[in-house]
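Q&A FORM
Asked by: J.P.
Topic: structure of HTH cro/C1-type domain-containing protein

PROVIDED:
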Amino acid sequence: MKAGEILIKYRKNQGMTVAKFAELLGVSQVFLTHLEHDKRKISENLFERLAEFLSDEEIKDLREAEKLKDIPKDIAEKLEKLEVENKNLKEKILNIDPRIGELDKRGLNQYEKAMNEASMFFNDEGIDEEDKQKLLLALNEVFFRSKEINKKKYAHKNKKNSVKDK
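REPLIED BY: S.T.
REPLY: Here is the structure written out as tokens.
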């Protein structure tokens, strides 16, 4: 997501106008509009003011988006394309496997990390979409099988420990 999109999303979720948000940030409406259209960069001073309003996660995303402004345009376009492809593949998997929705926050972070790292190996234009989907589905199944094995393993260990304690 681009920096401007993050700012617009926050402002609209709060039901604020450009004028109101600009006033709260201590900037002009024109400047805020330029930020929202990714025409200007966010200064460190403005990041500090934004931190009073946005969540830590939103600030982190905003900083990452700002870094992308320094990347050459062709590389940034490829990165955006890959992000969209990854998002589409993840959405397809979410629709296919309801177990993902049952994961707690830690499990979901593990899942996302595993899938993101794995997808980097086959996320090029030489592999067709169908093969990418098959690979992600296979990785998805491996992830959940390993979670189940670990669950049984630790349940067994905990059972042994509770018997020893008695």
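FOLLOW-UP: The chain has two domains: 3-68, 73-165.
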